[in-house]
Amino acid sequence: MKQNELFIINKIRHKASQSVDKPELGALRRAWRLRLGIGDDAAALASLDPRQELLITTDLLVEGAHFHRRRHPARALGHKVLARGLSDIAAMGGAPLYALLSLCLPGWTGEKWLKQFLAGLFRLARQHGIALIGGDLSAGNRFVADIIVLGSAPRGRILERGRAKVGQILYVSGRLGGSALGLKRLLAGRFQPTDRAVRRHLYPTPRLALGRFLLEKLHAAAGMDLSDGLSIDLYRLTRESGVGADLLATAIPVFPSATLNQALHGGEDYELLFTLDPRRKPPAHFEGIPLTPIGTITAGRRLVLVGPDGRRKPLPIRGFQHKV
Amino acid sequence: MKQNELFIINKIRHKASQSVDKPELGALRRAWRLRLGIGDDAAALASLDPRQELLITTDLLVEGAHFHRRRHPARALGHKVLARGLSDIAAMGGAPLYALLSLCLPGWTGEKWLKQFLAGLFRLARQHGIALIGGDLSAGNRFVADIIVLGSAPRGRILERGRAKVGQILYVSGRLGGSALGLKRLLAGRFQPTDRAVRRHLYPTPRLALGRFLLEKLHAAAGMDLSDGLSIDLYRLTRESGVGADLLATAIPVFPSATLNQALHGGEDYELLFTLDPRRKPPAHFEGIPLTPIGTITAGRRLVLVGPDGRRKPLPIRGFQHKV
After folding, report:
1. Which of B1, B40, B80, B270 to mutate to test the interface with A (most CBs of A within 10 A)?
2. What residues of A are in contact with residue B65 (Cβ under 8 Å)?
3. What average pLDDT does the structure give for chain A?
């Protein structure tokens, strides 16, 4: 393993050195300069702009729990590993800057598979100007990838989960349930190469520009990304804020051909859930992504699903069972 | 899984909130203030002292590769997960401040096991005043823990691997091979509860105070921690620096009852390997830990093992095969 490990690290390092910069991010990008990247015991960042704060997130992707190696292409997994981390930074309204990657590689991941995996990951990294600055590598029986993403945001003004307040309007971006539908079709093995739900599942788009728009232009109060499903993620947001919510079933934007159930409990849509003061009116779309009001923040801690007939019932909290 | 996951996260969060501060670290600790910890999409740090830089490291611990669940106690694994990350920060001469933990939990990790695991981890965290500020949790077939440690160090003065220069003296802390010997005894199942080699393997001590001493008082040039074994780690250090080394077999401090082979190629000792300008004379011990000169940095890129009879032969680079 050890010699092979050095070979793999060198390959990753070579790819990492090709990352490009994204000058348009301005102050957010300039706030943290990389002093030392891959190849040492730790990476080192220097703070150059004290008005920014550093965001750190970690996300696991586990074989058997989050994907099936016979169904999920290596390139899509590379994309998704990084997209999950970037989505967390988007959910704070920040700009992602650097990533570290810990990989546990079982025997079935050959050179070709790994090449495709890294191609998917580095393609997305280049799109957003992310530099890979460190990581760890191990052999093991199951594939596991842990991505760590560091980002920058204006100090004290990030989109926290705990800032939802009674009377605010709850919004969601995009349409929900597409990833759950895509996973179902992928596992059944019956779909067209251009199937939009399958693409949504395999190549989710982190809503980075939207996150910054929510923070800087809409002054959104609370926000998070939908990784496990609307019902459980809304539960998390309201719990952190000490509030409840009324969710309007008819208002929830459902992905074409998906069910309301998939929209409520399906995971991995990576859309943003956020709250706005009722006086603030967001545009109907941001860069083509619909922004839809789906409910209100209420006193107490109950989550209520309001049906088409106005009937109120407790929102079932199921969350996406990642198991595939 | 999901409801159970929320339960586990709440337990971890409760423990994390009990972490204590270590005021004696002064400027290093004050450099990065935690703005937002566990419970959001990302953690947030604010930079308060622009003379410091931020260190980030990630370390995987994988069932079957790094440990065997029937041999390694849960408490020792919790300790070791964090110790591995802290050792990387020690190897840079920095002070660890914050940690994030990604866990993949298989069915066999029950509540009691997890409690012991977290007890081992948080005990070490409290010793060093580390706050756990985030993480991720997944189900899966094998136990995997990825620890991310953030630390602080004086800007531009960290112990990098790439700074070894021809003519410098190579040093190592402590005695080597103890962890490899301890692992052998542990797997054989024949050892006393007080066995020092087994303790060394199960509860390694990150050399944090030594790392800062090397940086601040000895002005060490290059440094790294010995996680995979002296031979492969020396190879990494010299490769990063573009140099070679002569290693004196008789000078290598061998752990009591361990073999020279275990000292050369055994992993997980977590001692520090460093280089000093020949004019600098370190003390023979630092806080009871021997500091031993074991060779010199040479031109060219060859690693040579000099035998007791003065015979020179290429240093075999094997590294510790983590497989247990």
Report:
1. B40
2. 104, 138-140
3. 90
- State the pLDDT at residue B302: 96
Tell me how many residue pairs between chain A and chain B have CB atoms under 8 A apart. 244
Q: Where are the alpha helices (DSSP H) in chain B?
A: 2-16, 27-30, 74-90, 111-128, 178-188, 196-202, 208-216, 230-241, 260-265
pLDDT in tens, A70-97: 999 999 999 999 999 999 999 999 999 9
HEC letters along chain A: CHHHHHHHHHHHHHHHCCCCCCHHHCHHHHCEEEEECCCCCCEEEEECCCCEEEEEEEEEEEECCCECCCCCCHHHHHHHHHHHHHHHHHCCCCEEEEEEEEEEECCCCCHHHHHHHHHHHHHHHHHHCCEEEEEEEEECCCCEEEEEEEEEEECCCCCEHHHCCCCCEEEEECCECHHHHHHHHHHHCCCCCCCHHHHHHHCCCCCHHHHHHHHHCCCCCEEEECCCCHHHHHHHHHHHHCCEEEEEHHHCCECCCCCHHHHHHCCCCCCEEEEECCCCCCCCEECCEEEEEEEEEECCCCEEEECCCCCEEECCCCCCCCCC
Residue range A238-251, pLDDT digits in tens: 999 999 999 999 99
Tell me what ipTM this predicted complex has.
0.91
What pLDDT is stored for residue A29 in this prediction?
A: 65
Looking at residues A104-114, what average pLDDT do you find? 91
pTM of the model: 0.92
Q: Confidence band (pLDDT; 50, 70, 90) for A157?
A: confident
> Cβ of B62 and A138 within 8 Å?
yes
Give me the pLDDT at residue B24, please. 60
Sign for the CA dihedral angle at B44, B114, B320, A74 comes to negative
